[in-house]
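Repro:
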Amino acid sequence: MHTGTYAERRSQLTTYFDRTAVEAWARLTTDAPVSKIRATVRAGRDAMRANVFSWLPEDLTGRRILDAGCGTGALSVEAARRGAEVVAIDVSPTLVGLARERSAELLGGHHIDFRVGDMLDPWLGRFDHVVAMDSLIHYSASDIVRALAEFGLRTDGSLVFTVAPRTALLTLMHAAGRLFPRGDRAPAIVPITECGLRRRIGGEAALAGFAVGRTQRVNSGFYLSNAVELARKSPPRIAGEGGTVP
């Protein structure tokens, strides 16, 4: 699946979140004072995380969850508290280190398997649910659907992810970002349309076993994101000697 555009953007994200923005990101994901603009982003992310969790079973005991793009680990901690076996992965070693440090005080007797690397790594294994909150928003629609296809091959339940909806404001901000010197730019958020995304998902053979379920937009000042649920239509087919075929 690793297209040139996916690999290039992943490299940009690694540099940005591991070096340029790590201090700001660390403050954003705590109760520390932040600017009014970042406060709206914090509130939006909190609302989106609550929405994402409302789509997962209340009791996650025995369920294996992938937090794809775990950042500082807030979503992983909540899933582990619900009883899930959580694998949390991010491209930024610094953010993963921060997530480990923070979770140690919050988990009690629970455990999270934190890893640094590519969220699409097949060696991560199979999962009941995959959550990719705000970790696909920097990719093109085609790369998003290819990523979902990779997740789908290893997911028995649902895929829950967020995208940046194409609105006039986001399109303008995306264009304006190109005016800044390259060294000062954050990796651009790529706005996409929901109808276009649905069309691409419908045309992806590896996602034939999934159907688009609930969607929910969160708009909080400078935070604008759209959650989408892909639910498996039926359990994976059982092959011969007990193996599963997606």
